[in-house]
Design goal:
The chain has nine helices and no strands. By secondary structure, it is mainly α.
């Protein structure tokens, strides 16, 4: 058969050609445009996109060998990136609001996910929060424990009352 024409080459390598345009060129242009406007909505949209793009790139670098086994991965990445980038879908805002922001704004939930109880040996009692509280009460007394809890509650109220959070919950992109 003869040499492939230009359209066949473009169709065969569509992901290689379109991916840099969708993931880098357009977002860079839109980010520069957003910097030059006074609106913070577009700034936040593009900062959110770059955070998600960085996470996607880290994921891709980490699991590169596994992703090579899936020939559909570049096309899936292109579709997901289009969803994140295009203002019509506002996918970056959706992912950030639904998944990243709740995890980031509630560090207690993040620490409980990674909490692994420590054991002195296989047969000892589990070192969980209740055990630690009981031990603290035995060593320092109930009044000191109550003072500690009150102090922690006061600090939490202070953080919430003084606009400690970076984003407002009712902020819509």
């Amino acid at each position: 058969m003869g040499s492939p024409n230009f359209l066949q080459v473009v169709a065969k390598n569509f992901d290689v050609l379109a991916l840099p345009l969708v993931t880098l060129v357009y977002p860079l242009y839109a980010s520069i445009k957003a910097i030059e406007t006074r609106s913070s909505n577009d700034d936040q949209q593009w900062l959110t996109y770059w955070v998600l793009y960085s996470m996607l790139t880290l994921f891709e670098l980490t699991f590169a060998k596994v992703l090579e086994l899936f020939p559909i991965w570049p096309y899936a990445k292109l579709i997901v990136t289009c969803w994140l980038v295009l203002p019509h879908f506002n996918g970056a805002a959706y992912v950030y609001r639904r998944f990243i922001r709740p995890f980031y704004m509630n560090p207690q939930s993040a620490s409980t996910i990674w909490y692994v109880p420590r054991k002195k040996n296989i047969f000892s009692k589990q070192d969980d929060i209740l055990t630690a509280a009981e031990k603290y009460i035995q060593e320092h007394g109930t009044e000191e424990f109550a003072r500690l809890v009150t102090k922690a509650e006061r600090e939490e109220r202070y953080k919430r009352s003084n606009n400690y959070m970076i984003f407002d919950d009712d902020y819509i992109y």
